[in-house]
Amino acid sequence: MQEEEREKNGTMESVDPDKIYSKGGYFPHKEDDLVNDTMDAVDPDEYRKFLNGRDDNLEEELKPIEVKSTGHLELQRREEAKKEAKKNAHTAAKEVFDWLESVLTAVVMIVLIFTFIIRINTVDGTSMNPTLMGGQKLVVSDLFYTPGYNDIVIVQAAGLDGGKPIVKRIIGLPGDSIKIDFAAGTVYRNGEPLVMETKDGFLYEDGHKIETATNLSQDMISGKEYTVPENSYFVMGDNRNNSKDSRLLSVIGFIDKNYIAGRALFSIFPFSTFGAIE
After folding, report:
1. Which of 61, 103, 109, 262 is spaced 20 to 30 Å from 75 by Cα?
2. How far apart are CA 55 and CA 60, in angstroms?
3. Are residues 236 and 247 in contact, defined by beta-carbon separation less than 8 angstroms?
């Protein structure tokens, strides 16, 4: 009768305190077949024995359950959100820094390249017609450059044409003898005439276009041989009768190699002229 009253009222029978183990708890007895709602204090070792025949994971059965309040979970969520925000901010800042570093590196490289390796020069006037036109922009470099026949070079010196850059073609190297028959318009180098021919409506000399034959003597004497000094070069414009060049002995004359700023490699403007220069 007392047992039935206890089940109805949901009360728990008092137990002897001596039977309570400090690390134990209230567990159902095995003989209750896990259906009795009343709980008696048992020894955990007995409970372990009780579980021996079960398939459950004993360690999981005895693992403490972490119970967190809703407020605690919200605080944890906020902390994780803050950490994620800081991580994202750090990543964004690093990406911006890397981008700025790349841009700065590119700018420095461009400055170095255009200072020590290449430069841009603009053709002034018509002295290089028909090969180059006034206003044409050229990429020029003197890196590892040794002047050679027919190279188009930029010449610049304080005493030459007011110090502004001039564009000419190399005709004679150091030690060469240069002679010009101005009546016939024929240029001789080391006693051999530079071959002239007409192709596609253009006059060619030594394989390169020229505007006209060389009839303008300037300071040179027709038929006289001139030897190019050591470390110097003889240059002329392709527009032979409208060019101030080495023929003007009193003003320009033979060009010291230190006055050659570099060789014209490419034309970059106007775009219709884009390409290598010959």
Report:
1. 61
2. 12
3. yes
Averaged pLDDT, 197-206: 94
How many CA atoms within 13 Å lie on the side-chain side of 247?
26
Residue type, 261: A
The 8 Å CB, 24+ separation contacts for 53-57 are none
Tokens 């159902």 belong to 28
Helix (H, G, I), strand (E, B) or coil at 63: coil
Tokens of 50: 């009780």
Per-residue pLDDT averaged across 146-152, rounded?
A: 96
In one-letter notation, the amino acid at residue 100 is: L
Please, what sign has the CA dihedral across residues 225, 207, 217, 183?
A: positive
Q: In whole angstroms, what is the distance from residue 169 CA to residue 262 CA?
A: 12
**Structure tokens, 269:** 């403007």
Report d(CA 262, CA 231) in Å as an integer: 15
Side chain identity at residue 125, one-letter code: G
**pLDDT computed for residue 230 by the predictor:** 97
Q: Say whether pTM exceeds 0.90.
A: no
Rounded to the nearest integer, the mean pLDDT of the chain is 81
The predicted pLDDT at position 208 comes to 95
Residue whose pair of structure tokens reads 């073609």 in the numeric block: 169
- Whole-angstrom Cα distance, residue 159 to residue 252? 8
Q: Burial letters for 207-227: b for 16+ Cβ neighbours within 10 Å, e otherwise?
A: ebbbbebbebebebeeeeebe
Catalytic residue set = 127, 168
Backbone angles phi, psi at 252, to 5 degrees: -110, -65
The C-alpha atoms of residue 72 and residue 79 are separated, in whole angstroms, by 11
